[in-house]
């Protein structure tokens, strides 16, 4: 289990988008795999066989969640701005924190752009000024504005891609306590079924 835990957890997490649900799905999948070990024929790698079981369990849970989701009709008499305010008030703190972190990362990367590109990016992409207006503000030709915007976006993509590449390995970490907890729960449940 320890050899495959991280990959299998990430598989379940990718489908369910919830850590707790992914852990539950992984535990259930391990129990299913344990019960079906005699059916494993070795035609595929064990990790592939386990991943398929985890994916099926996660997909089944996702279907159940979708069926349970309640559809709340919006009263047409409620003004849109009131609905927007309620939605903002209901925003989860973790979503707000993620948005804040992403905004901070993006702002720092924009600040790192060379001056000529940063000014064009801010006016065109952030302030959404037309090309001609941006050119007039900065004393550039429209063609130069277009070129600098294209290059600024390319630089930002490259900078953000580098940051993402570094962070990908740590995404949905699964070491230590979480891994130990799942192994212990699965072994405990297996022991219960034997006894």
Mean pLDDT, all residues: 83
Unreliable spans are 70-76
Q: How does the helix and strand content classify structurally?
A: mainly alpha
| Elements, N to C (H/E) | HHHHHHHHH
CATH H-tier superfamily of the largest domain: Winged helix-like DNA-binding domain superfamily/Winged helix DNA-binding domain
The name of the CATH topology of the largest domain is Arc Repressor Mutant, subunit A
From the alpha carbons, calculate the radius of gyration and give it in angstroms. Answer: 25 Å
Instruction: State the name of the first-level CATH class of the largest domain.
Output: Mainly Alpha
Q: How many structural domains does the protein architecture include?
A: 2
The CATH architecture of the largest domain: Orthogonal Bundle
- Largest sheet, described in full? none
Helical proportion, percent range: over 70%
Number of strands: 0
Protein architecture, described:
The chain has two domains: 5-70, Rna Polymerase Sigma Factor, Chain: A (Orthogonal Bundle), CATH 1.10.1740.10; 93-168, Winged helix-like DNA-binding domain superfamily/Winged helix DNA-binding domain (Arc Repressor Mutant, subunit A), CATH 1.10.10.10. The protein is 75% helix and 0% strand. By secondary structure, the protein is mostly helical. Residues 70-76 have low confidence and may be disordered.
Topology summary:
Blueprint: H1 5-16, H2 19-35, H3 46-68, H4 80-89, H5 93-111, H6 115-126, H7 131-138, H8 142-168, H9 177-194
Helix pairs in contact: 1-2, 1-3, 2-3, 2-9, 6-8, 7-8
Characteristic terms for this protein:
195 residues, mainly alpha, Rna Polymerase Sigma Factor, Chain: A, Arc Repressor Mutant, subunit A, 9 helices
């Amino acid at each position: 289990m320890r050899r495959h835990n991280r990959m299998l957890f990430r598989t379940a997490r990718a489908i369910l988008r919830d850590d707790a649900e992914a852990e539950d799905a992984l535990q259930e999948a391990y129990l299913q795999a344990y019960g079906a070990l005699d059916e494993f024929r070795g035609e595929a790698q064990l990790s592939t066989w386990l991943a398929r079981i985890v994916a099926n369990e996660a997909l089944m849970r996702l279907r159940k969640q979708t069926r349970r989701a309640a559809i709340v009709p919006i009263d047409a008499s409620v003004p849109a701005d009131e609905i927007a305010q309620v939605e903002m008030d209901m925003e989860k703190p973790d979503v707000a924190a993620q948005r804040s972190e992403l905004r901070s990362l993006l702002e720092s990367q924009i600040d790192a752009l060379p001056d000529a590109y940063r000014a064009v990016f801010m006016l065109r992409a952030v302030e959404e000024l037309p090309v001609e207006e941006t050119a007039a503000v900065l004393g550039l030709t429209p063609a130069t504005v277009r070129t600098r915007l294209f290059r600024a976006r390319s630089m930002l993509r490259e900078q953000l891609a580098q940051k993402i590449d570094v962070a990908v390995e740590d995404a949905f970490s699964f070491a230590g306590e979480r891994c130990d907890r799942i192994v212990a729960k699965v072994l405990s449940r297996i022991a219960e079924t034997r006894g």
